[in-house]
Amino acid sequence: MAKIPNTVFSLRHFLVLSLALNVSFILRMFYDGEVGHNNSSLNRAKANNNVHKSRVVMSSTSSLKNSTCKDLTGSKNRIINLDHGDPTVYERFWRQTGDKSTIIIPGWQSMSYFSDVSNICWFLEAEFAKEVVRLHRVVGNAVTEGRHIVVGTGSSQLFLAALYALSPNHASQPINVVCASPYYSSYPSMTDYLKSGLYKWAGDADSYEKDGPYIELVTSPNNPDGHVRKSKVNRSQGLLVHDLAYYWPQYTPISSPSDHDLTLFTVSKSTGHAGMRIGWALVKDKEVAKKMTKFIELNTIGVSKDSQLRAAKILSAVSDSCEQENSKENESFFKFSHKVMANRWKQLREVVHHSELFSLSQFSPAFCNFFNRVLEPQPAFVWLKCEGNVEDCESFLRAHNIITRSGKHFGVSPKYVRISLLDTDENFTQFLDRLSTIQSL
Amino acid sequence: MAKIPNTVFSLRHFLVLSLALNVSFILRMFYDGEVGHNNSSLNRAKANNNVHKSRVVMSSTSSLKNSTCKDLTGSKNRIINLDHGDPTVYERFWRQTGDKSTIIIPGWQSMSYFSDVSNICWFLEAEFAKEVVRLHRVVGNAVTEGRHIVVGTGSSQLFLAALYALSPNHASQPINVVCASPYYSSYPSMTDYLKSGLYKWAGDADSYEKDGPYIELVTSPNNPDGHVRKSKVNRSQGLLVHDLAYYWPQYTPISSPSDHDLTLFTVSKSTGHAGMRIGWALVKDKEVAKKMTKFIELNTIGVSKDSQLRAAKILSAVSDSCEQENSKENESFFKFSHKVMANRWKQLREVVHHSELFSLSQFSPAFCNFFNRVLEPQPAFVWLKCEGNVEDCESFLRAHNIITRSGKHFGVSPKYVRISLLDTDENFTQFLDRLSTIQSL
Would you indicate the residue range of the signal peptide (chains A, B) (predicted)? Predict the structure, then answer.
């Protein structure tokens, strides 16, 4: 672990911090003023609580199980956990929508296992499917014509369903699964945890040169680094899974509707409803859609109808907000979320710009068909590099009570860390505060 | 396939059929009269629709994908699908409860991945856990003290999580998984579909004689035959998973609280909410609970919060109905469901009693601590045997447009079939009608 530095404050750091705090407070006053809900303080406390509690979770990557956590809000001793991408940043928007996004489910509803058995995906709720198609049309980020929709318990289940569906029947060896590094840190463990004889993790797509069939995962924009991606291997017999969890207007310019064989989306990152555990796949090939459905049948006998119905309501509210946008008071979900992300990235860049210890990726602006103008990408995660002599960026930041995820989990150097930008305003502000005070080793 | 018989009506058959229809109509008048909901006809149509649609599903076991289905209600040509245990029979009770079982979820609620990260099962909603403990106390069917609760996307996911958790680390060979036949038809495929190197299906527990560790599944009351079960193998190094999906007062006398190392329950069969996909495990060993939680994290990153909250509401309504029972108009869920099952079994036994073609298992009555009297088991499935020369009971009934599941899927003779008793009144009555007209080959 790196030495804990003696923190030195300079006037310049105070200025940057003060600017960041101001923007954050103005934003909070503006939005909280419009929320009339009685439970807002309760919920803020809960969100705060989550931050503290969540240090225990994901111990396999952060190894923090035994660390202590003192609840000193605002103090340097408070642990800020930005290890995982918990999308609580969007809660404020959903509080503003009121009844428009509320769902009521009577006790007698949705009791059957079945939704529509004339559909290949027999547990897919028609209302949810309808809203998926509508939202893709409104946003312009995916072709849905000629696709089968398969719903999953989050896109994680659909990722596993895709591996199952794309693995050749009766093969003597498991098929290789590859992804260009830096790749999503859970891909290797999700692929290998059951020691399946159907598929196995084969590492970085950039150095993959084997013959025969393989599965390549293409995450675009990429988790962790936010870059737009295409297939890397470019050999014959490649089966592609496109994970487009972050291909939404708040994160990246929507250049054209995605048009792949098998594409995964999730409400967790699009609308921020991670607790719903709802994802969907757009699948061109009928047999692949059937096998994915079979996987989910054997895995969980379908997907929660309650969450599908709620997701339908939420997606509908997003589409409505886009179609009915007419004033600042009535802004669309994507305008709201784009503004939040833009503010966060602006503040972050200012802090990092004044530091010699850290650096960020540069992104090229591109035309966004949704917002109808040229925009810069503003990813859900910061892919931060520790410059100079800091070899283990995760440990370095951990010494400052900031929990991040090391580059080594993404198949690259520990000089990099992934940091969530989707957390609460409180944690984000604290994070900037902390970062601006770190001047040297 | 068996020859299609020339159906012969006798006075005796008309009498049995008429009796069955009368009981069914009286029941329906009684309950429908108390339902004030506007959507009741819509829902009945939907339920009916499901019956017709569902013939396409589960094609792997019923191979009915290409069969035609004429919608002639009441006609002999109408296909009655009782292949799977879709618990729509309980819908009537839930309609009566009105607002007591309704849940309202605003758009901003339950957005985070996390529920309580101080808990081993960090995605377990506290309210759901509380109601699980309460219901087991009210019913007296399970010890919850000293247990960790792990929530799953149905008990299917928990079954897989249990296999993962109980498999030894770093073993050179997969651990054997066994269950005494007749066993639940999905156990073999669920165990083997990913060709896991951790565990593999090893068939009938009765004939299992290998040394070393193994996992034994104990389903009690058993699916398909309804009998109370204990572990069969009785060797050292056995790891037991108790699947108690049907250990509820409507199906079997509650003799004592179950007290095992790892026990699975599900709302699908207890309250009838299969569409929720919520199950729970009671786990004695902390490390096993941790590994099960890890499985669910890698499989689906948690379990729908919406469904957990709804399940909490439903379980609470069941406990309330037991604690507040004071009149016929205010009967408990278990009194209602016990009565429905008792009526169905009575009618079924009458029909089968008059037939020389079919036979049923006999069950010993036992004292039920919940109802405080001696009662007979009345399983969720009929385990029907075709007598005489009928070797393939599934095909024989299929020729009469009744879809059932053959004994061969449960590891035994095709002279047996499993038939769901949890379907709608309409289908049950039609089924009895059809059965009473089948006199000979």
Answer: 1-20
Mean of pLDDT values over B263-275: 98
Across the interface, of B53, B113, B310, the residue whose CB is closest to A118 is: B53
Q: Which of A114, A219, A266, A426 is nearest to B274 (CA)?
A: A114
- Side-chain half-sphere CA neighbours of B42 within 13 A: 5
- Does the beta-carbon distance from A105 to B107 stay under 8 Å? no
Regions of chain A with pLDDT less than 70: 1-74, 327-329, 440-441
For position A380, what pLDDT does the model report? Answer: 98
> Which residues does chain A have within 8 Å of residue B195's beta carbon, measured at their own beta carbons?
196-198
How many Å apart are CA B316 and CA B131, to the nearest integer? Answer: 6
How far is the C-alpha of A53 from the C-alpha of A68, rounded, in Å?
Answer: 11
Q: Taking residues B136-155, what's their average pLDDT?
A: 98
How far, rounded to the nearest angstrom, does the alpha carbon of residue A283 sit from its chain's CA centroid? 21
Interface check for A68 against chain B (CB to CB < 8 A): the answer is no
Decide: residue B388, CB within 10 A, 0-12 exposed, 13-18 middle, 19+ buried. Answer: exposed
Q: Is the peptide bond before B182 cis (omega within 30 degrees of 0)?
A: yes
Q: For chain B, what is the largest distance between any 2 Cα atoms, rounded to a whole number of angstroms? A: 68
Q: Give the three-class secondary structure for A405.
A: strand
What pLDDT shows up at residue B83? 95
User: Which of B88, B199, B306, B316 best probes binding to A when mutated, by most A CB atoms within 10 angstroms?
Assistant: B306
CA B316 to CA B310: how far, in whole Å? 10
Cβ–Cβ gap B275/A88 under 8 Å: no
- pLDDT of the residue at B236: 86
- Which chain B residues have a beta carbon less than 8 Å from that of A313? 107
pLDDT in tens, B209-223: 999 999 999 999 999
Domains of chain B in sequence order? 126-322 (3.40.640.10)
Could you give the percent of chain B with pLDDT greater than 70?
82
> Hunting for tokens 């007979």 — which residue is that?
B376
Say whether B276 and A305 touch across the interface (CB within 8 A): yes
Q: With CB atoms and an 8 Å threshold, state whether B303 touches A53.
A: no
Substitution target in A86, A117, A287, A292 with the highest count of B β-carbons within 10 Å is A117
Give A111→chain B minimum CA distance, Å: 4
Q: Note whether A53 contacts B113, CB cutoff 8 Å.
A: no
pLDDT at residue B440, rounded to an integer: 66
Is any Cβ of chain B less than 8 angstroms from the Cβ of A195?
yes
If you average pLDDT over residues B171-194, what whole number do you get?
A: 97
- Show residues of chain A in contact with B313, CB under 8 Å: 107
Residue A24: the pLDDT is 44
pLDDT at B189 over 70: yes
Establish whether the linkage from the previous residue to A365 is cis, with ω within 30° of 0: no
- ipTM value of the model? 0.86
CA distance A429 to B2: 75
